[in-house]
Predict the structure of Cytochrome c4.
Amino acid sequence: MKQIRQKQSGIRRWFAISGLVLLGGLVLAGISYGPQVLGYYRFSEAVETTSRESAASGGPWPQLNEACMLCHGYNGNTVTQLYPRLAGQPAAYLAQQLRAFAEGQRTNPIMSPLAMSLSADDITGLAAYFAAQTVSPNAAFSADPVRLKKGERLVTTGNCAACHGAELTGQAAFPRLAGQGYDYLVKQLADFKHGSRKSMGDAMAFTATLSDEDIKNIASYLASYRGDAHAQ
């Protein structure tokens, strides 16, 4: 019996020592790795919070429109002049262009495969989302005053407002031109002129008569125009 009690006492002592060692290890680990563990926990919480908020405001996170942000900017208000600004564009126009990319009527190494992957509901949703975004002025572009005046004259005599609206903010299937990216406008006008981009009917037939300087002047005016009857 004495030997049994000694053995039990030894086992209890071993558990007690092991427990103290384990506790000490946990304390040391907490001191050494606590900040990292806490950081990971906070990061995880932030991701979950963002996911919940995004889901509440517009669907699961990440949302489809976020794929457009790299080129087209936050909420469609890109600051680069190379890519089109999507914010405030008519939904009908945006949907039409996405379908054109998907069906091969327009081609682009980025937009074509992306549009092909979209469902009809995706296209409708993206078009509605960007159409509803508030437009920010194209403050990153500063036009030459001489080009600005020449461009205004060409836009007025060309009666661009007939299709694009009195303030050139777009209507129906015609895009918003006011505040659009300068380089993007130059390229699109040149593409219409040379036939590499087609328009509805003969709406853009006038571009055949434009010189390269005319195109730059028009793009300068449109990129600077706010759409509220005042140039920047």
Notes: The chain has three domains: 1-57, 61-136, 137-231. The chain has a mean pLDDT of 81. The radius of gyration is 30 Å. The CA atoms of residues 82 and 184 lie 5 Å apart.
